[in-house]
Write a structure and sequence with these properties.
Layout lengths: L6 H16 L3 H20 L9 H13 L4 H21 L25 H13 L4 H17 L3 H5 L12 E5 L5 E5 L2 H25 L19 H14 L9 H14 L4 H8 L4 H4 L1 H17 L8
Antiparallel strand pairs: 1-2
Helix pairs in contact: 1-2, 2-4, 5-6, 6-8, 6-10, 10-13
Length: 315
């Protein structure tokens, strides 16, 4: 009798297909893997498996997630991962049906992304110029922040930038984003100046290391001793918190993604076309970009309620 295929192998095959056929980014595949491993673990504790799970079992699993207090967005993401796994299973022939397909996901309230005012961004940029253990750290921090605000890059896109992308003082930056899709984003004059300063320092340090130790120069603009060879997402997240404190801002309000939101919001406030912002951010669907119009709507509402002369009159 043939032994059943473990859920771990089925998940691995699905993730490989996502990478090969759908061009799913590494972080997307990691998220799928975590979500599916959680579902497989829950089923295994009850003597079940992904290959044989029924619709009632999956609904019970989602109820379990709700009881744990997981947010609707998290539960919706877990259900989406299961739907895609079973779509793959039907295509591969190890399931005849998709038991997750008829299940209605939890209602997902789309929260408005946090953003910053232009004055707050200016304070962060100024803090980057003075925060660091030495001149090299300060130049790197300034380069990171100027490029992030000038381009609206995702964190992974920023920290993994190849140094070749900025050679020759380019006015446009070629970025490889989600799904290995390339896009061009313009660089502001302050960002180009910050890149030039950091690049000169970085290259000098690389030359010194090569002469003294024979070390090969890094292929990344922001090299580090991490396993990936470049500045990690976690270190950059910590750096943003440090800069927030130095700028007198609440660190809870500021993340790398907040700067991406600020980039888009400030462009929209200054008259940029929504389609252009979609292209710059690398959004596949313009509906994702349209959320920034809601931020402006909310600000206009507050402006009327707080500043309009009739708003101060008693009803």
């Amino acid at each position: 009798m043939q032994a059943p295929v473990p859920d771990t192998r089925r998940i691995a095959a699905f993730l490989d297909a996502q990478a090969a056929e759908q061009g799913a980014a590494r972080n997307t595949r990691l998220a799928y893997g975590r979500d599916l491993a959680d579902a497989a673990g829950w089923l295994a504790q009850r003597g079940g498996a992904l290959a044989s799970a029924t619709r009632p079992e999956i609904e019970t699993y989602l109820t379990h997630l709700d009881a744990q207090g997981l947010a609707p967005a998290t539960r919706a993401r877990r259900l989406s991962a299961l739907r895609q796994l079973y779509r793959f299973a039907v295509d591969e022939g190890w399931r005849a049906d998709n038991p997750a397909l008829p299940i209605k996901g939890p209602g997902k309230r789309r929260a408005l992304p946090g953003t910053l005012s232009m004055a707050e961004v200016d304070a962060l940029l100024a803090a980057a110029e003075t925060h660091g253990r030495g001149a090299g750290d300060r130049m790197r921090n300034t380069c990171l922040m100027q490029v992030l605000y000038a381009t609206g890059l995702r964190v992974t896109e920023l920290v993994s930038l190849p140094v070749a992308a900025v050679r020759g003082n380019p006015q446009l930056l070629l970025v490889r984003g989600k799904g290995d899709k390339d896009r061009m984003v313009p660089l502001s004059p302050p960002a180009r100046a910050a890149i030039a300063a950091w690049l000169a320092h970085r290259d000098a340090e690389a030359d010194r290391a090569r002469i003294e130790t024979g070390a090969r120069p890094s292929a990344f603009l922001f090299p580090s001793r991490s396993k990936a060879g470049h500045l990690t997402r976690i270190r950059f997240f910590t750096l943003i918190k440090e800069l927030s404190l130095a700028a007198g801002l609440d660190p809870a309000r500021v993340t790398p993604h907040t700067l991406r939101h600020a980039f888009a919001t400030h462009l929209l406030q200054n008259g940029a076309d929504l389609r252009a912002i979609q292209t710059l951010l690398g959004h596949a669907d313009i509906a994702t970009t349209e959320i920034y119009t809601h931020i402006l709507d909310e600000r206009l509402k507050r402006l009327v309620l707080e500043r309009h002369p009739l708003a101060a009159r008693p009803g």
